[in-house]
Amino acid sequence: MNDVRYTALLATALIVWTHPVAGQQGPPLPSGPLKFAAFSAQFRGDGIFALQGPGWPTLKGTWKRDGGEVEILTPEAAGGCDKAGRYRVTVDQDKGHVAFDLLSDACTPRRMILDRSLWRPPDEVVPVPVRQIVRTTAPAPAAIPAASSAAGSWPSFRGTRASGVADGQHLPDRWDGAKGENILWRTAIPGLAHSSPVVWGTRIFVTSAVSSNPAATFRPGLYGDGDASDDRSRQRWMIYAIDIPTFEWGPASSPIIWNGLVILQCDTQADSFLLERNCGAWAAARRSPRRRRCSTRGCS
To answer: What is the pLDDT of residue 104?
Structure first.
């Protein structure tokens, strides 16, 4: 009986010893300067906080810790940065590293810098992984077609002269890819990218990076979450040239039966014709080509 009580007490003691206590602080944050990329920060022992980086607003205020969370307050900052931001904090005491993960923060620059960041001592040299770029080409150069006219083309980001203006295109004011609203056609492009497409003549050129990692995700960069992708797998950098569908006209009428003849009008962008077949002798037919080109605006 005593052995059972002793075992139960020992188990209870182990549970109390290993279970985290509410408000337990864990390893302390380094009070000296820390660095992350081009940024520097300091969480002083007296609760003073500072964060700065070239080209970014300097944020100064206070910080406090509650267990595995840190609350940062910069009351003199603008744009929502005067409100408190909360982050989950992880401290590697042996290496002097501090990692932050967002809980809530209305301050955009503070959030872009701190979320998913790893801070190190300022004198630590960060190893840069070696990247190799191998240029591959087709076995034989493909024949390059003659260049089309620049009229109506979209040669670069924001179009001709980077003006963002496309005269005479009659484009819709809105579209929805998921619902197919104002979407004329679509085609799948392997990989991930956000570069501007180039439209020249009857072709669209797009670039893409195809990762060998099937779980690769898109990261929008500086104007998104601020962090680069951690994908270090082999990449294929591609340029795709896509022919724009012509959407030629198809048959334009229902058959007409008149005086023993079946008459069918077939209109296309080229080679339009009128077909007459004898109901009694179906093999015999008369084909009359259209002499004038027609469209939805009439015939010319």
So the answer is: 94
Token representation of residue 216: 């690769």
Burial of 67 (0-12, 13-18, 19+ CB in 10 A): middle
pTM over 0.70: no
Q: Select from 231, 270, 221 the least CA-distant residue to 248.
A: 270
The one-letter code for the residue type at 170 is: H
Of 47, 56, 36, residue with least CA distance to 107: 56
Amino acid 43 reads F
- How many residues are given for the chain? 300
CA 58 to each of CA 27, 70, 112, 194, 265: distance values in angstroms, whole numbers, following the listed order = 27, 19, 14, 31, 73
Six token digits for residue 218: 């898109």
Whether residue 194 contacts residue 220, with contact meaning beta carbons closer than 8 Å, is answered with yes
User: Which residues are CB-neighbours of 99 under 8 A, at least 6 positions away?
Assistant: 89, 90, 92, 116, 117, 118, 119
For residue 121, give every residue at least 6 positions away whose Cβ sits within 8 Å of its Cβ, in sequence order, or none.
30, 32, 33, 34, 35, 96
Residue 61 carries which side chain, given as an amino acid letter? G
Q: What percent of the chain has pLDDT over 70?
A: 79
Q: 14 and 7 in contact (C-beta within 8 Å)?
A: no
Task: Give strand pairing partners of 275.
Answer: 264, 287
Q: What are phi and psi of 276, to 5 degrees?
A: -120, 130
Which ranges of the chain have pLDDT less than 50? 1-23, 295-297
Residue 144 CA to residue 141 CA, distance in Å, equals 9
Two tokens, residue 294: 């027609």
Tokens of 245: 């569908």
